[in-house]
Amino acid sequence: MILNEEGAQVQKKSMESYLAPLVRDIAPSGIRKFFDLVSANKDIITLGVGEPDFVTPWHVREACVYSLERGRTGYTSNAGTPELREAIGQYLYDSFNVAYEPSNQILVTVGGSEAIDLALRALIVPGDEILIPEPCYISYSPITTIGGGIPIGIETNAENGFKLTAEGLEAKITPKSKILMLCYPSNPTGAIMTYEDWLPIAKVIEKHDLIVISDEIYAELTYSDSKHVSFSSIPGMKERTLLVSGFSKAFAMTGWRMGYVCAHEDFIAAMLKIHQYTVMCAPVMGQVAALEALTNGLREKDRMVESYNQRRRLIVQGFRDIGLDCHEPQGAFYAFPSIQETGLSSDEFAQRLLVEAKVAAVPGNVFGLGGEGFLRCSYATSVAQLSEALERIGGFVDHLKKG
Amino acid sequence: MKELNDLKLKVLDLLKEDARRTPILMATMIGATEAEIVTAINELESDHVIVKYAAVVNWSKVEDEKVTALIEVQITPERGRGFEGIAERIYLYPQVKSVYLMSGAYDLLVEVEGHDLREVANFVSEKLSTIDSVLSTKTNFILKKYKQAGIIYEDQEVEPRLMISP
């Protein structure tokens, strides 16, 4: 009971009323909602997991264990250990032909997610518009809002292979537009962008003086000779690009939370300020493991990529055999089949698939514009599980058609 | 030694993981036709690159558990044939599961399987040690198998993944 100065009883404020409106008003993630539904069901085969099904390679884990045994448990420099930054710089140059100076253009972060948050917080002035091609990773829009920006979705579609086009981008640009957020290879569609795809985009960026945050966390996971083209490698774009990546996907290190961001030294210096006052530095054990992954883990990485490629072919062919339209993903580890011809919405389809066929996949609408009518299916799972899931989905779709 | 093409190497990798994979499944995974896979397998078999398809059995799970010994054998090589003739005499015994020519302190490593200790001991004393060229044997019984042919026997505790994640 709360009394006012006169001793009269007053209504207690709800705890929610103390929350910052900016945060309070953010809707819970559609994935979270679906997660609760999946947890309530048993004997599920899940294609809903956005992480490798491999355990971090043993030599990487062992390097961390050995380092702990030697008592390496302290802070590192805010930007990350010099050895790791050096290795990241060399790796990016060797793999994607982009050159960054380890001493002041590379910042090691707690996962790619922190890097994106830092980039947005360092750049956004309240009211700035952040352009986000969709369907996309679910965090971009809310994290923009938390940073005080306004997310503006740019719809991409299956007919165009879910690629961003210069026309699509330009149509959404206003005087308030400041940042273009990219994620190719794409979660959830598996789309990639070629050098030729990037060139007209780069012209629009230059014309409208935009900054680009390029989330390239799936860069290593490309197939069918479609090598990843970093946006930073496009002529004239390096200065305007904050390249975000990490170790989670390619090196099967999701739980380590190791990421990094590479950019112009002024941008890095600004992000470093936020980073040092919030997390101080990425965990030293993660940095040790990440260095080992970059130094001795490339063969393991290639082995995992080959395995994803095999499963990618299996799932795409599987959906086509079932009679569901499925564009061919060229990157990441997701298939994004269309379920439009069943007449069900993404939500309905996913929920019924879960209950009736015991297969979990994520409804496409949670990924924003253009996602409705699709289903995100991760093929980072065993061949046996994939085959069983495809059989169950086939049975479910047959039942729908007859029903 | 033959140099295998990329397709055959991929087929071998997939079969090594699981020999029961069908040609149509492998064709989809590799991005080849079923006919190409069948041809590749046939050639691998006729060239004796694929020698046999066999199950890796964890006998400790079965009541009728077997006894396995690794026997280090020192021998005097034969003029003109070296170790080949003696190796052949040894590997022809059905209870011998594998024979390797080794560098180091002994010459042959012989894996012998029997129903009990006595059976293995009898084989060593009556068959192996009595071969003229055999100078000495040292029998090591396997007490427990942790890993064989790249497969870990113990059920590994796997941290459960989230069912759904971004």
Characteristic terms for this protein:
heterodimer; A: 403 residues; alpha/beta; seven-stranded mixed sheet; 14% strand; B: 166 residues; alpha+beta; Arc Repressor Mutant, subunit A; Alpha-Beta Plaits; 2 domains; four-stranded antiparallel sheet; 5 helices; 6 strands
Secondary structure elements and pairings:
The complex is a heterodimer of chains A (403) and B (166).
Chain A: E1 2-3, E2 9-10, H1 21-24, H2 30-39, E3 45-46, H3 58-69, H4 82-96, E4 106-110, H5 111-123, E5 129-134, H6 140-146, E6 150-155, H7 166-171, E7 177-182, H8 195-207, E8 211-215, E9 241-246, E10 258-262, H9 265-278, H10 284-296, H11 298-322, E11 334-335, H12 346-357, E12 359-360, E13 362-363, E14 375-378, H13 383-402
Parallel strand pairs in A: 3-12, 5-6, 5-7, 7-8, 8-9
Antiparallel strand pairs in A: 1-2, 4-10, 9-10, 11-14, 13-14
Helix pairs in contact in A: 3-10, 4-10, 5-9, 11-13
Chain B: H1 6-17, H2 23-30, H3 34-46, E1 67-75, H4 84-91, E2 96-101, E3 108-114, H5 117-128, E4 134-141, E5 147-148, E6 151-152
Antiparallel strand pairs in B: 1-3, 1-4, 2-3, 5-6
Domain Transcription regulator AsnC/Lrp ligand binding (chain B): 73-144
Protein name (chain B): AsnC family transcriptional regulator
InterPro entries (chain B): Dimeric_a/b-barrel, HTH-Siroheme_Decarb, Tscrpt_reg_AsnC-like, Tscrpt_reg_AsnC/Lrp_C, WH-like_DNA-bd_sf, WH_DNA-bd_sf
Question: Can you walk through the features of this model?
Answer:
The complex is a heterodimer of chains A (403) and B (166). Chain A has 403 residues and is of the alpha/beta class. Helices cover 41% and strands 14% of the residues of chain A. Chain A has helices at residues 21-24, 30-39, 58-69, 82-96, 111-123, 140-146, 166-171, 195-207, 265-278, 284-296, 298-322, 346-357, 383-402; strands at residues 2-3, 9-10, 45-46, 106-110, 129-134, 150-155, 177-182, 211-215, 241-246, 258-262, 334-335, 359-360, 362-363, 375-378. In chain A, strand 5, helix 6 and strand 6 form a beta-alpha-beta unit. Chain A is globular. Chain B has 166 residues and is α+β, with helices and mostly antiparallel strands. Chain B has 2 domains: 6-46, Arc Repressor Mutant, subunit A (Orthogonal Bundle), CATH 1.10.10; 61-144, 2-Layer Sandwich (Alpha-Beta Plaits), CATH 3.30.70. Chain B has 5 helices and 6 strands; from the N terminus they run H-H-H-E-H-E-E-H-E-E-E. Chain B has helices at residues 6-17, 23-30, 34-46, 84-91, 117-128; strands at residues 67-75, 96-101, 108-114, 134-141, 147-148, 151-152. The longest helix of chain B is centred in the first third of the chain and has 13 residues, at 34-46. The model of chain B has no long low-confidence stretch (mean pLDDT 93).
